[in-house]
Amino acid sequence: MAMMLAGGGRPFRWIGLLVFALLLGATPxxxxxxxxxxxxxxxxxxxxxxxxxxxxxxxxxxxxxNGAPNMRATNFVxxxxxxxxxxxGLFSEVAQAPVADGAVLSITINNIPERGAAGRGFRTGLTFxxxxxxxxxxxxxxxxxxxxxxxxxxxxxxxxxxxxxIGRTDPPTDxxxxxxxxxxxxxxxxxxxxxGLNQLGGDPxxxxxxxxxxxxx
Amino acid sequence: MSRRSPALLALxxxxxxxxxxxxxxxxxxxxxxxxxRAADIPALTVDRFAAxxxxxxxxxxxxxxRAAALRPPQGTSFADYLGETLRxxxxxxxxxxxxxALGVSGLLTENRVDSGFGRGRGVLAAEFIVTRxxxxxxxKTQRVERDWDSSVLGAVAYIRxxxxxxxxxxxLVEALLADxxxxxxxxxxx
Lengths: 217, 190
Description:
The complex is a heterodimer of chains A (217) and B (190).
Chain A: H1 2-6, H2 13-26, E1 32-37, E2 50-51, E3 55-65, E4 68-69, H3 71-87, E5 91-95, E6 104-113, H4 117-126, E7 133-146, E8 154-166, E9 175-178, H5 181-202, E10 210-211
Parallel strand pairs in A: 3-5, 3-6
Antiparallel strand pairs in A: 1-8, 1-9, 2-10, 3-4, 6-7, 7-8
Helix pairs in contact in A: 3-5
Chain B: H1 6-16, E1 20-22, H2 30-39, E2 45-51, E3 63-65, E4 68-71, H3 78-92, E5 102-115, E6 119-132, E7 135-149, H4 154-178, H5 180-186
Parallel strand pairs in B: 1-4, 2-5
Antiparallel strand pairs in B: 3-4, 5-6, 6-7
C-alpha cells in the first residue's frame, strides 16, 4: 500500500505520503477494546460448596461456535478448564480417560457471536473507526454431570458475554475492561466455571453428603 | 497442537487472501461418549481407514474453501481423521481395545464442502467394515450432511466452513454408533 501511494518519483509522491501518514494516524481509532460483563462475576467464596468425599471424574470439554465444535478454541482453553475443575475441590481426580466409578463431567462452551458483527466491523474499518460499533459475543456454558454409567445427568447452564467496541463509540455499561481478547475469554471461562461447578456441587444428586450453602441455578 | 485463536486465524486469512489451515486433533465429546454407552458394545479396535476408490484424487488430503485449502493434521489424511475420531469416542467410554479380535475399518467415499455467499454445506460419507478375527462380518455406508450460514467475507466463510466441516466427523461416527445393524454386528455371537 505504501509503495502504491508513494508512487516512486511521480509528481504526487508527497501528497501520497501525506495521505498515507494521515491514514496511519487514523488507524488507532479502529482499535478494538474488550469488556467482560460484570454478571455473573467472580464467585463469592462464602457461597462455595464443599464436598466431604470428592470422587474422581472424567472430564470432557468442547468449545463450540454457534453450536459447531471449534477444535482450535477447544485446544486453546482446554488446559485452563482442566485446572479450574481441579481447583473447584469437587473432585479427587480429574482425568481424560474413564475413571473407576464411571463419573463424567462434560463442559461445553458455546460462543454465539452477534449476527452481522463481521459486516459491522468491516464498515468500521472502512471509515477508519469514525463509524464505531459495539458487538457482543454471548457465551452459553453447559455443565452435565453423570455420577455413574446409569446415572441421570445433572445439568446446569451459565451465561456470560464479552462486548467489543471498535472505533469511536461509547463504552458499554456494567462491564470490566480486559487488556486483550485472550484475557477477556479467560475471565469468562474462569467465572463461568466457578459458578457452574458450584451449582453442580450444590445439587443434592451430586453426592449424598455435602456441606455449605447450595446455590440456586 | 495448534494454539491459534479464531481471531488470529481470521486475521491471517484476511491479510493473506488465501492460505491453508489444518484440522486439529479430534477430541472426545459427551455426545460421542453417550453414543458408545448407549450402543452397549464390546471393546473394539480401530483398524485402517483409507480413501475409497471413488473419492476424487486429492480429496483425502485437502479440500478447498473459497481460495483456501483445509487439510487434515500433519502427516495424515481425512480418512485417518475419521478413524481417529472413532478412536477418541471409543476411548472416552473405555471401549477401545487394540488387542480386540473385533475391528472397525473404513473407506472414505464422499468428502466435500460448498461454501457459497449465503449458505454452506458439507457432506461426508464412509463405508464402514467390521471384522471378527480378520474375517469381514459387516459392511455398510453411512452418510451425513450439515448446512450452515456462510458469508460474503471470505475469511468469515472459511472459519465457519472449517468449524462445521470438522463437526461432520463426529456426526458420522455417531451415525455409525447409532446404527442398530452395526450394534448387532459387533455384539458377541449368541
